[in-house]
Amino acid sequence: MGSNTQDWEVFGDISRFCDKIKNTEITRGQPLTDCSNWPKTHKGPNDGACAACHFFRNDCEEECREDPNNSINFAVDLADVVPEGETRTISFSACEDAMRTEKGGCMYGGENTHGSFWYKIDPNPGSC
Fold this sequence. Notes:
4-stranded antiparallel sheet, elongated, alpha+beta, two-stranded antiparallel ribbon, 4 helices, 33% helix
């Protein structure tokens, strides 16, 4: 786990998303989604909107100069291993553990199946 400000802001957004969806029953094909904006407040590559982009990758200079905001999209759905028509209830800890894993899985975010759920964390230039 990282120790800089961007790390903790992303982890905070993950926790807020997982707290929002905890104990929710999910039906396959009806993902739970959310998005966090990172407003640009300074011109430097490590401030404001660029923090999210630089957290995941280091080639953001052009995007950070041109876009007023960056954002991170979150999604959770049932994985294909769950039979059609069945539902599952997601816990906070399962969500947070998987999202933190996906955050660190690739410089462009990540998406993968963990148990009965599919998780996606996706940083993007531009607002939600």
